[in-house]
């Protein structure tokens, strides 16, 4: 079963669009079928067989988009090997939950906020805006692309055994390191925001305001999402106050 | 006219990047704001607007089928509005107004995402479709998402421009005080990211190291 076959670059390119037709009925199911279609056309030369395969893959599927190539590669491999369609359906159903959860933890709640915090730190540190943005995009997308190509390689290589490989991979053990890096990044950005204020908005705040900002940061850290709601209300209150003063005078 | 067309194209690309294609994060508010600013030759204003919206977006995660505000197109719209209505430079009062507008507009743009996804369901899952239909409809869904992003960016930009043009002359709060309050709010929002990485208790050491590094950097920087 093992042994990497050629990387289907058409699938890699289409994998970036797996969520292009996201809907509440099949989630990314139609996107899944869209991505593997070039390979299905190679496997099923008979038109009826191709249409039947497309219909099988248009059903419900969901996964984190960056880890979806694991499932895409594995399913392509299973189709190439002539696996029973019922087995492929069960395989997709079994894999989708874990790929979603793992990707959410690893990327959405880990790598992405860390990369964003890195960009904010650069901006607050006085790095030219274009360099900060470019470095952020390069840093973030290097892992993005690596994860997608790795997933497709492993899926194609391991086929239905991909879950075992996933369990043994670094992806599973990376989260604690991301949390440590993220905590460091938050501490760094918090201090720079408090000390230097909003980029390009001179001058920075005075001592009393620095103390208030530090207290607000602690409140944000303790209350999380609730603090965001209070923050939104705070912006609206500030806007109303600033305008009300003007109207009154 | 050409400026609003450029804003529409950028907004379309940002809207597309949020979910549909390719998710390379030009849809992050700080990137979208900076790019919008750069498009009109005023990148620093775009960075300031995008930075503030980004601070409020740090803990918004696109998990599962959750409905969430779409901050990328809101950043394009808000930056466009700021650039059109406010004289060159980063001014604290208009920055507050445009941030308040963006935080409301991102909820509306998030609603358009829900409508778009419902429409995708209608065009793609009414019954079995052929391989050719699948390709065409998938690409059509992406095209509609691009147009949606363009529409909410230009619509928001125009509305925000009108509101800012009317409201800005009435702003009377001292700019130093306003800037300081904005810093307090930004610090609170960056603080909300702490629970993402385990909270104050479980990752106290790296958080403290980050704070010390930040203090050292702040002292070294001019």
Task: Write a brief caption for the model.
Helix content of chain A is 76%, strand content 0%. Chain A has a domain of 166 residues.
Defining key terms:
heterodimer, A: 249 residues, mainly alpha, 11 helices, 0% strand, B: 222 residues, 2 domains, 9 helices, globular
Query: From the helix content, strand content and strand pairing of chain A, which structural class follows?
Result: mainly alpha
The count of β-strands of chain A is: 0
Oligomer: heterodimer
What is the H/E string of chain A? HHHHHHHHHHH
Detail the poorly predicted runs of chain B: none
End-to-end separation of chain B: 41 Å
One letter per element, helices H and strands E, the order of chain B comes to HHHHHHHHH
Number of helices of chain B: 9
| Count of domain modules of chain B | 2
The low-confidence parts of chain A are: none
Which helices and strands, and how do they pair?
The complex is a heterodimer of chains A (249) and B (222).
Chain A: H1 9-15, H2 29-43, H3 47-57, H4 68-80, H5 85-124, H6 129-158, H7 162-168, H8 170-173, H9 175-196, H10 207-223, H11 225-248
Helix pairs in contact in A: 1-2, 2-3, 2-4, 4-5, 4-6, 5-6, 5-9, 9-10, 10-11
Chain B: H1 2-18, H2 29-39, H3 43-57, H4 71-85, H5 92-124, H6 131-167, H7 175-191, H8 199-202, H9 204-220
């Amino acid at each position: 079963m093992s042994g990497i076959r050629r990387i289907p670059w058409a699938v890699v390119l289409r994998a970036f669009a797996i969520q292009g037709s996201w809907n509440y009925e099949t989630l990314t199911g139609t996107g899944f079928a869209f991505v593997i279609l070039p390979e299905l056309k190679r496997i099923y030369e008979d038109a009826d067989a191709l249409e039947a395969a497309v219909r099988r893959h248009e059903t419900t599927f969901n996964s984190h988009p960056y880890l979806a190539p694991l499932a895409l590669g594995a399913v392509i491999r299973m189709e190439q090997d002539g696996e029973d369609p019922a087995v492929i359906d069960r395989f997709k159903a079994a894999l989708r939950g874990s790929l979603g959860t793992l990707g959410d933890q690893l990327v959405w709640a880990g790598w992405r906020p860390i990369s964003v915090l890195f960009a904010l730190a650069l901006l607050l540190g006085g790095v030219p805006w274009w360099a900060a943005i470019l470095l952020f995009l390069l840093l973030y997308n290097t892992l993005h692309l690596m994860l997608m190509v790795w997933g497709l390689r492993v899926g194609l290589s391991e086929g239905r055994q991909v879950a075992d490989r996933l369990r043994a991979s670094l992806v599973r053990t990376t989260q604690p390191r991301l949390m440590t890096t993220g905590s460091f990044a938050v501490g760094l950005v918090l201090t720079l925001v408090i000390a230097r204020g909003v980029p390009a908005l001179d001058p920075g705040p005075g001592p009393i305001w620095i103390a208030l900002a530090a207290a607000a940061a602690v409140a944000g850290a303790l209350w999380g999402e609730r603090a965001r709601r209070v923050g939104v209300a705070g912006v609206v209150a500030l806007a109303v106050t600033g305008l009300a003063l003007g109207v009154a005078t | 006219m050409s400026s609003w067309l450029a804003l529409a194209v950028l907004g379309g690309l940002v809207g597309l990047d949020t979910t549909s294609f390719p998710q390379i994060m030009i849809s992050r508010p700080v990137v979208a704001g900076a790019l919008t600013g750069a498009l009109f030759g005023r990148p620093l204003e775009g960075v300031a607007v995008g930075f503030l919206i980004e601070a409020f977006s740090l803990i918004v995660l696109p998990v599962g089928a959750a409905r969430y505000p779409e901050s990328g197109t809101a950043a394009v719209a808000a930056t466009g509005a700021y650039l059109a209505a406010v004289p060159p430079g980063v001014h604290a009062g208009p920055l507050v107004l445009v941030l308040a507008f963006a935080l409301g507009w991102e909820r509306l743009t998030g609603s358009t995402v829900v409508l778009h996804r419902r429409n995708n369901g209608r065009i793609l899952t009414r019954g079995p479709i052929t391989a050719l239909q699948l390709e065409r409809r998938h690409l059509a869904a992406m095209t509609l998402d691009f147009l949606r992003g363009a529409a909410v960016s230009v619509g928001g930009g125009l509305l925000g421009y009108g509101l800012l043009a009317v409201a800005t002359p009435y702003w009377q709060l001292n700019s130093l005080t306003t800037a300081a309050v904005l810093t307090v709010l930004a610090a609170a929002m960056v603080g909300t990211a702490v629970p993402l990485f385990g909270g104050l208790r479980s990752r106290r050491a790296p958080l403290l190291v980050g704070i010390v590094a930040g203090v050292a950097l702040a002292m070294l920087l001019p």
